[in-house]
Amino acid sequence: TPMKWISVLIIILGILCDQFHKYFMLHIINIQDNPLIMSNYFNLVFVKNTGISFGMFAHYEHAQLLFAVLSSLIVIGLFVWLLRSADTLTQLALSLMIGGAIGNIIDRVRMGGVADFFDVHIGNYHWPAFNIADSLVFIGAIMLLMRTSKA
Question: Are 100 and 134 in contact (CB under 8 A)?
Fold first, then answer.
């Protein structure tokens, strides 16, 4: 169906946006050496996350390989769900999640960890740094939750 092709396009665009942004931040702005203070609540920084969410399990040997394999298996499951789904909102949500997950898998394979840049904070409390791929996964998950709550 046409939506399946649109889903593939969304996945590809998500991966390209994420990877281009990471390239831009690391190689054009050189954010590793030049963090940018944007406001009292938001900075652009470089954090290499070698763990999973919130940096958990970062100290395990072979963690990057394990996380890349597990993430890939999850992506395969999400893609099967996408192909079987007839609901447009579910397809869009899964497409965003798949694109974001693949963006972070690429980082793990290429860099041995996920490049995160967005630093949101209030006072001394900092939300763990995140990136475009994380945002795509989060938005897709929220859309799925909204879809599920309507059913």
Answer: yes
Largest interatomic CA distance in the chain: 49
Tokens of 28: 């054009």
Counts for the chain of helices (H) and strands (E), in that order:
4, 4
pLDDT, tens digit (0-9, with 9 covering 90-100), for 40-83: 999 999 999 886 655 555 565 666 678 788 899 999 999 999 99
- Active site includes 134? yes
pLDDT digits (tens, 9 = 90+) for 81-124: 999 999 999 999 999 999 999 999 999 999 989 999 999 999 88
CA distance 92 to 140: 7
Q: Is the separation of the CB atoms in 44 and 36 below 8 Å?
A: yes
Per the residue annotation, which of 18, 107, 116, 119 is the catalytic one? 116
Query: Which of the following is catalytic: 18, 107, 119, 134?
Result: 134
